[in-house]
Write a structure and sequence with these properties.
heterodimer, A: about 180 residues, alpha+beta, 3-stranded antiparallel beta sheet, elongated, B: about 800 residues, two-stranded antiparallel sheet, 26 helices, about 65% helix
Chain lengths: ~180, ~800
């Protein structure tokens, strides 16, 4: 009888202590999986975007465009054809400017390319996706840094992934990823 | 057992304390573990996928180090041979693998080149991709309708009309040579008649006269002897009389002579009969041959006043011959002459019988007696009357020949017309323009990537053209010789030369432009791909007309190529005539690359740039000749110009057929344009004005020659419009010749040779360029270990899983 009285509520107590721990573990694993998944998607997008950016220089350098600054005009018939054909090209996948010569001002182009490979060029869909991935600030929360060193293009993205539950404001994980590709020049 | 478990539980489990924890540990831990495993598995998949992407990106970066010269100059992409593929790949791989942090440990990585440009399939694919925009755009701006071009080429090069004209001309040759043989036969027969038959006939008559005289003397002697006989004397005693014996001896001699003359006459008459029958037989066959000539000419749509005037001329000759023969030799000649020959034979036999009546005593028998008179002598031994051959046979035949000889004479204007055109053709065939002496490289065969045999080593030779002009000259001489046989011989020779020439043209088309049939059979896709491929050759490689000022479709200046090859002298040096064609050979030289006649190399394949230009020039001339023949033959103005030469119309037209394409070729090699299928011919009233405009700036054709053209053809006033299909430059002509006359495999090999030689020369101070190392793919292989999420060295050390990825990444 005494024993029963002493032990009354022990299961509840035990449960109230242990169960949250287990739930926490499950949530942690789930959150870990989300973070890993988000990181992988960001890595994939970054690799593809950088690869695409590195190709911009090939077309820009080889086609004398009517849109280029200076005295350059079409260098030949094929230049004219290529220039006309690419007027309708999606800016999320190609660029007509030689942005790589001033990488510090190429943020928008890198960002657009990133959006292109993340969500097919749809910025609102990209924002939504980034929110779902837990990127803090969404698209605006990603910092794009571009560096051109000789013929190598280096793109770095910095962002924070929000753990799916923010326990004591400790759920923001800073990420920094860098991809290097060679410019086609 | 149950008690043991029970006692264990009682000792260890204190009631319900820890039951929840235990439950959770026992139930959820495995669950948790499985969840973690799945997460880890998913992470591994992601790592593998990302590793592949990083490999691809690294290979892509390696490909980014492409050969800029090949790209700029040829539009070809291959990895630069200056840097190492493996080192570059590993550099980028190492940098980018940091993306995966400690998830992966790279064990080994390597990359090597694959599928070099020396593989003809690879380079062909790149050329087609490059040409899809560049060459296609060029073709569109030149206004080339591809389907119509194929149809027009098929029509122009099908040559069915030429083959029909060849048949018509062969029929003409047949009848003209028969007439020539007939006339020669008539001449021989007249000679035979005059020199053999007629003397024999005269001798025969004379021998009979003598025979008759001697027979009459014998009769007189016998009468006198019989008058002197006594009453009881034997009448045979008369033959002992000296007068009678003398008369018999004289008659015998006369008889022998008469028999010999008759025998000779029979022999000559028999021979003459055979000759005349041969003439008649030959003359009888002429109408059918003439009709065949007429029918074949009607079948040919190219037949015009040339063929018609030849037909008319021959027909006049034939009609005159048959009319004269009919009048001179009767329709019953064969039977009548046979009877006369038989009669002569009988007479000879009878005269022989006269001989056999002699007795041993050499006394005359009673064959000829004293009661014979002149009429009896004539009746028994008179001459056989020969009426089947007219006594004026020789006169009539000679008169026929004299009349026909007058046909073999044209007036001086006509003769001059022929002569002028032949001179023009001869001068044009000797005009300078065979090659540009600035482009004189002889490439070292060791520098080439692959050796190919020569193409367009034409079956036709220059001599086949000069022989034609020579036949024209002989015809002009013959037709003004006042000798019908010589004229006919010249007609036969000319027509035969034209037939041989046309046959050679037809066979040249079949042997040289062999791709045409395959394009027609295989359809538009092959035709379009062919245009792209060969268009690349025409529009991206310089030729003799644009090596100093032209550029590729992507804007690369050809002048750079000329400079690279060491070209210096820029003075206009277009020189060489067709007679120089045989002076070049395909030997190895010391030059590293061609200076500017690269399209010509693609066409011909010789290591000598001069030979390439020369063979191209000649074959371009033949190509223009084939394209121009039918427009010339059908051109009304040309026909009327030729008609001024009467029976010499063929000579005029022939000269134009030879001269017109030479004018085209000279204009083309000097940078001008010509309609592929002409409607306006230069050497015509309206075309001459256009020619003068097109010749501006072309010094190859002297002002003297131009004046001669103007004098020979009186140009019409006004400014006529030149008409035709597809105004094409030398470059477009090269495109079509390449398209039709070079097979794709040979073409690709020659493109490879040009790429190899130019790139080798460009890079010679830096490294040795090798087309076999111009890789278009990277073969990369990476072996890596997948590390666990929480790597604890003391526990996990190395990852459990190792993966190997291999990729081919290309342009």
């Amino acid at each position: 009888m005494e024993i029963c009285k002493k032990e009354r509520g022990s299961v509840t107590l035990e449960t109230s202590i242990v169960l949250p721990i287990f739930i926490f573990l499950f949530m942690f694993i789930y959150g870990l999986f989300s973070v890993v998944s988000a990181q992988n998607q960001m890595t994939h997008t970054l690799i593809q975007a950088t690869k695409s950016l590195s190709l911009d220089s090939y077309l820009t350098e080889n086609v004398d465009s009517a849109a280029e600054a200076g005295t350059k005009f079409w260098g030949g018939l094929s230049d004219m054809v290529l220039d006309i054909v690419r007027i309708d090209n999606d800016p999320n996948f190609t660029s007509q400017t030689d942005w790589y010569k001033t990488p510090e001002s190429s943020g928008d182009i890198v960002k657009d390319r990133f959006v292109g490979y993340l969500a097919g060029g749809d910025e609102s869909a990209a924002r939504e996706k980034l929110d779902n991935l837990g990127i803090v600030g969404g698209l605006d929360g990603i910092t794009f840094e571009t560096e051109v060193n000789g013929e190598s293009l280096t793109v770095t993205i910095k962002y924070e992934i929000q753990y799916w539950f923010d326990f004591l404001d400790m759920g923001k994980i800073p990420m920094e990823q860098t991809v290097t590709s060679r410019l086609w020049m | 057992m149950k008690k043991r478990i029970g006692s264990f539980l009682k000792r260890k489990i204190n009631g319900t304390r820890g039951a929840v924890s235990l439950l959770l540990v026992l139930v959820l831990s495995p669950l948790l573990s499985i969840a973690l495993l799945l997460v880890e598995s998913a992470r591994y998949q992601d790592v593998v996928q990302l590793s592949e992407e990083i490999m691809d990106s690294s290979a892509f970066s390696t490909l980014a180090d492409y050969d800029e010269y090949l790209d700029e100059r040829f539009g070809l992409l291959s990895v630069s041979q200056e840097s190492g593929i493996n080192a570059s790949f590993r550099d980028y791989l190492d940098k980018n693998m940091d993306l995966l942090g400690k998830s992966v440990t790279v064990n080994s990585s390597s990359a090597s080149g694959a599928f070099p440009l020396s593989n003809t399939d690879i380079i062909k694919q790149q050329l087609l991709e490059y040409s899809e925009i560049s060459v296609a755009a060029e073709i569109v701006t030149e206004g080339i309708d591809l389907d119509e071009l194929l149809d027009k080429l098929n029509e122009a090069l099908g040559l069915e009309e030429l083959e029909k004209e060849i048949d018509a001309l062969n029929a003409g040759v047949d009848v003209a040579s028969e007439v020539e043989k007939l006339l020669e036969g008539i001449t021989d027969t007249v000679t035979q008649y005059t020199n053999k038959y007629k003397p024999a006939l005269t001798a025969y008559g004379t021998a009979y006269t003598e025979f008759q005289t001697k027979a009459e003397e014998l009769i007189t002697a016998l009468s006198d002897a019989e008058d002197e006989l006594e009453e009881d004397e034997d009448p045979s005693v008369v033959y002992d009389k000296q007068e009678v014996q003398d008369a018999v001896t004289a008659l015998k001699t006369a008889r022998d002579d008469y028999k010999t003359a008759a025998t000779t006459l029979k022999t000559e008459f028999t021979s003459l009969k055979s000759s005349i029958e041969a003439i008649i037989s030959a003359a009888d066959s002429l109408p059918s041959k003439l009709q065949k000539f007429d029918e074949k000419s009607s079948d040919s749509s190219l037949s015009d006043q040339c063929t018609t005037s030849t037909y008319d001329w021959v027909k006049i000759v034939v009609d005159q011959i048959t009319t004269t023969l009919d009048a001179t030799v009767g329709a019953d000649f064969k039977d009548k002459s046979a009877e006369e020959i038989k009669a002569l034979g009988d007479q000879i036999t009878k005269l022989g019988q006269l001989e056999n009546t002699e007795t041993e005593d050499n006394t005359w028998d009673t064959v000829i007696t004293s009661d014979w008179d002149t009429d009896k002598i004539i009746a028994e031994y008179g001459t056989v009357s020969i009426t089947s051959v007219s006594n004026s046979f020789d006169t009539r035949m000679n008169s026929l020949k004299t009349s026909l000889d007058q046909q073999a004479n044209v007036d001086s204007d006509t003769s001059a017309q022929m002569g002028n055109f032949l001179d023009i053709a001869g001068e044009l065939l000797g005009i300078a323009g065979l090659y540009d002496a600035n482009l004189d490289s002889v490439v070292n065969t060791g520098k080439l990537h692959a050796n190919t045999s020569m193409s367009f080593s034409s079956q036709m030779s220059v001599s086949s053209l000069t022989d034609l002009i020579s036949a024209g000259e002989d015809f002009k001489d013959g037709i003004t010789s006042l000798n019908i046989i010589k004229a006919l011989g010249a007609v036969v020779k000319l027509l035969k030369a034209i037939v041989e020439f046309l046959v050679a043209i037809v066979s040249w088309v079949g042997e040289t432009l062999f791709n045409l049939l395959s394009y027609i059979a295989s359809g538009p896709k092959e035709w379009y791909n062919g245009l792209l491929l060969y268009g690349y050759g025409a529009y991206n490689f310089p030729n003799r007309t644009n090596y100093d000022s032209g550029k590729t479709v992507s804007g690369y200046s050809y002048d750079k190529i000329y400079q690279l090859a060491g070209g210096q002298n820029r003075a206009a040096t277009i020189t060489g005539t067709l007679s120089d064609l045989a002076s070049f050979g395909n030997a190895s030289g010391s030059d590293g690359m061609f200076k500017g006649a690269q399209s010509e190399y693609l066409l011909v394949g010789s290591t000598s740039e001069l030979q390439n230009q020369s063979v191209t020039f000649f074959n371009l001339y033949l190509f223009r000749l084939v394209l121009d023949i039918i427009p010339i033959m059908k051109n009304a103005e040309v026909s009327s110009i030729a008609a001024l030469a009467g029976p010499g119309a063929w000579v005029v037209k022939l000269a134009i057929i030879l001269a017109e394409p030479m004018l085209d070729t000279i204009i083309l090699v000097n940078g001008g344009k010509e309609f592929l299928i002409k409607q306006t011919v230069y050497l015509s009233y309206s075309g001459l004005v256009i020619l003068q405009n097109d010749l501006v700036g072309i010094t190859a054709i002297s002002s003297n020659l131009q004046d001669k053209l103007k004098d020979t053809i009186e140009a019409h006033n006004g400014t006529p419009t030149e008409k035709g299909f597809l105004d094409a430059s030398y470059t477009e002509h090269m495109l079509i010749l390449l398209l039709l006359g070079v097979d794709q495999q040979t073409f690709m090999q020659r493109v490879q040779n040009l790429v190899q030689t130019e790139a080798a020369e460009h890079y010679k101070s830096e490294f040795t360029f090798d087309l076999d190392k111009a890789y278009t793919y990277i073969d990369s292989q990476v072996t890596y270990t997948l590390n666990p999420m929480f790597k604890i060295d003391s526990l996990t050390k190395n990852g459990l899983f190792t993966a190997t990825s291999r990729q081919y990444t290309g342009y």
